[in-house]
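Late entry, evening session. Most of the bench is empty. Finally got around to the prediction I had been postponing all week. Sequence below, unchanged from the version circulated by S.P.
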Amino acid sequence: MSDWPIASEEDRGGRIGVHIVGTKVHKVLKWVFRETSSTDLGIDGEIEVRNEDMTSHGRIISAQIKCGSSFLKEVSDYGFVYRGSMKHLRYWLEHTSPVIVILCDPDDEKCWWVTIDLQKINIHEKGWSIEVPFKNELDSSATSTLIKIANRLQKKDLVELLLRDWLGWSFEHKLRLASIFASPSDYHWFSHLGSVDNEYFMIDYILADVKGFSEKTVQDMLHYAEYNHKQYGYVNFLLAFISESPIILQNIPEPQNILGVKVHYVPLLLELYEEPKLIEIGLDGKRIAFYENGNLLNDWAGEVKSNRKIK
């Protein structure tokens, strides 16, 4: 064994990848690239988006960079297949800025990228994978798409806004939401308190992570639904189960009995592309759209039975 330090091929490839991406961001996109510290948290650098006049408004995309032929071996009809660790996936999905994975070919210095969104992830028994499209080259053609990604609201803020919109359609615009000042001072936990024809609804949501929905969070919410019922007599609790993955939404739990409370569980699909929205998922995974007359229709045609679970 040598008495001298040796740089591993993995380390060397990582450094090459960081330099390739940094050069492309500065030279081709004309944006700013900042390499992060060497701490292995799954983020190699930040891309700061600039406007056409070269001004920056602080919009950041975080990047994980993988360089070398080993990351380009597995392909599908449409792209490279990247496989990663569950700990990094959870970290990326909770990150305050959008995260992209960038695969680099060190020989011709080409790079391909994909956004880490749960709806694109394939969960396997021992991990997960995502397809990095061949069409997503890190070059000038990516500019407009990356700007849209950088300009996204944080997921939690976006969900709050979308949930209000969905509630309006769901209750045929009859639901009145109380402001934070109008809610009782001892009203616990929930995002909203609403009323329809003098019938009150306690309303909140739970966001899925890669493992699904937190059972502890659900139990905590049920506890406070019971508390609020005893304090104020509220008889409806609506809990929206929100995920970007239709598969995860197939596994929402059955509501538990709370004496005096009608518990509504509603599966909602979060779509972040094009026009962000929440879509209720009916039986057989069909999507439900709400119309002014209150009819439930899927995206194509015909009636769809709701998959709300009520107890």
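Two things to note before I forget:
Residues 290 and 296 are 6 Å apart (CA to CA).
The mean pLDDT is 85.
Will write this up properly tomorrow.
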